[in-house]
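Field log, afternoon session.

UNIT: design team B
ACTIVITY: writing a sequence onto a fixed backbone
BACKBONE:
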């Protein structure tokens, strides 16, 4: 169904509910599924967050200058990217980490043509460092990179089944949207991704699927075209 995908992974997903750090078992589960999907011939780009180590808008950053806090958050995404790279390569998947902030000793700088070339050569790419600019979230980075590398779809893994009209964790009778438009998300103020990311996808007609990362096999089901999660279109 989809030849080239961008998967947005939050740092919290790698912490598996612990709030801080990396959960070895969860990282292993995610990378096992990604390796399986990659073996099907799907070109995979991963944009990873860093909230399990540091978030620029979190409580611990309240006394900091926002630019400094955001830079710390960007660096934390590199830690997660390297962990994913290590786990993927142990499963036999060729992988490259590219960062928006240059760290030549540990990763390649993000260059659009280089990223596309890695995908064409059958390598998984992990894009760290967000956009490289403060005030922009990794959600926005995922949307931007998806457009730059001409991905077929943007996937966002969450802890719920899709998009709801209210927080399903707090509201028991929240209604799930099987399909929704970007304009409806903006109009209803749904907290799916930040507004900049949603607007980028809307303006460039990029479909997005929000699904539950905690259900084993969901990434493969989405890529194969099964109706999993919520589909967002223009």
């Amino acid at each position: 169904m989809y030849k080239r995908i961008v998967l947005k992974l939050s740092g919290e997903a790698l912490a598996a509910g612990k709030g801080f750090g990396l959960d070895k078992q969860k990282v292993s589960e995610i990378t096992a599924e990604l390796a399986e999907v990659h073996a099907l011939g799907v070109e995979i780009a991963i944009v990873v967050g860093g909230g399990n180590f540091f978030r620029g808008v979190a409580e611990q950053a309240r006394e900091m200058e926002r630019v400094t806090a955001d830079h710390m958050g960007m660096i934390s995404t590199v830690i997660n990217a390297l962990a994913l790279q290590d786990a993927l390569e142990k499963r036999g998947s060729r992988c490259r980490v590219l960062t928006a902030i240059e760290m030549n000793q540990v990763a390649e700088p993000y260059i659009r043509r280089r990223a596309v070339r890695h995908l064409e050569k059958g390598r998984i790419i992990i894009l760290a460092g967000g956009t490289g600019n403060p005030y922009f979230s990794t959600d926005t980075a995922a949307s931007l990179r998806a457009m730059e590398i001409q991905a077929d779809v943007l996937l966002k893994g969450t802890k719920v089944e899709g998009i709801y009209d209210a927080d399903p964790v707090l509201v028991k009778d929240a209604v799930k949207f099987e399909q929704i438009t970007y304009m409806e998300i903006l109009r209803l103020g749904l907290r799916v991704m930040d507004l900049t990311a949603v607007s980028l996808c809307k303006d460039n007609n990029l479909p997005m699927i929000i699904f539950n990362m905690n259900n084993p096999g969901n990434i493969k089901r989405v890529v194969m075209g099964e109706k999993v999660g919520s589909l967002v279109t223009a």
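LOG NOTE: The first helix runs from residue 11 to 15.
NEXT ACTIVITY: expression trials, pending approval
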